[in-house]
Design goal:
4 helices; 2 domains
Length: 243
């Protein structure tokens, strides 16, 4: 009996040391990992924007960060892009689409123009089978970008679909050989996230900023204009009735 307790104590001690060591090293590595992830996403945004904006002007664009409700209570960021600070209209939308592939989640950075026509995509993360779904990131000899990603250029991101699912669609994309599931996951995630971006833009409220960043006041501009119009009409009626 004593040996059992002794072994249990040793296992408990070893487990505690291992857990403590992992926590200790994680506290050092986590910030570095997060930094690398942010740098990777920044480079990916510039990559997918290239072509829509001249390469020498990409550093000067304005990214307006907004959020999408993917599921109830679950939010992710996307970006509305302006060519410069004085520009009034957005020229592009950039978001990270996520979908379930054959072996796990596939993450794809996507850039569309203001009409949701795809400028460029970049597959950032996947756990697909080497030689099949993993071909999504393969650059052929002599090319400058993965051949798979070029298939998405100029497609409507709301309607992009695998050729096997709709061969008559002008927005069809050829599936990777032996990896239709991966291609379908990317197409579906792009269209689903684009729909969320579209709804966000359609429902966005013009914001008026008053005071400093800590005391920003926003209101529905159209509603405020309607209220003012109603007040003007009421005042006119009162004036007319007093004559």
């Amino acid at each position: 009996m004593g040996n059992i307790f002794k072994l249990a104590a040793i296992l408990f001690l070893v487990g505690g040391i291992a857990a403590g060591s992992l926590a200790f090293f994680n506290s050092f590595t986590k910030p570095a990992i997060e930094k690398l992830k942010l740098e990777s996403e920044t480079k990916a945004r510039e990559y997918v924007l290239n072509g829509l904006v001249p390469e020498d002007k990409i550093k000067g664009v304005i990214y307006e960060k907004d959020s999408l409700e993917i599921q109830k209570g679950s939010y992710e960021f996307f970006y509305k892009v302006k060519e410069n600070e004085s520009a009034s209209n957005h020229i592009a939308y950039i978001f990270l689409a996520k979908g379930s592939g054959f072996s796990g989640v596939v993450e794809t950075m996507v850039c569309t123009d203001a009409q949701f026509k795809i400028n460029r995509i970049k597959v950032l993360k996947h756990t697909e089978t080497p030689g099949l779904g993993a071909e999504a990131q393969t650059i052929k000899y002599g090319d400058k970008e993965p051949f798979f990603e070029t298939w998405f250029k100029e497609k409507n991101s709301l309607k992009v679909v695998v050729e096997k699912d709709d061969s008559s669609s002008p927005d069809k994309v050829q599936s990777l050989t032996g990896a239709t599931i991966t291609t379908r996951a990317i197409c579906k995630s792009i269209s689903a996230y684009t729909e969320l971006v579209k709804k966000n833009i359609e429902n966005s409220v013009p914001v008026v900023y008053i005071g400093d960043a800590d005391t920003v006041v926003s209101y529905d501009h159209e509603k405020a204009m309607a209220q003012q119009d109603s007040i003007r009409k009421a005042n006119a009626q009162v004036t007319e009735g007093g004559k």
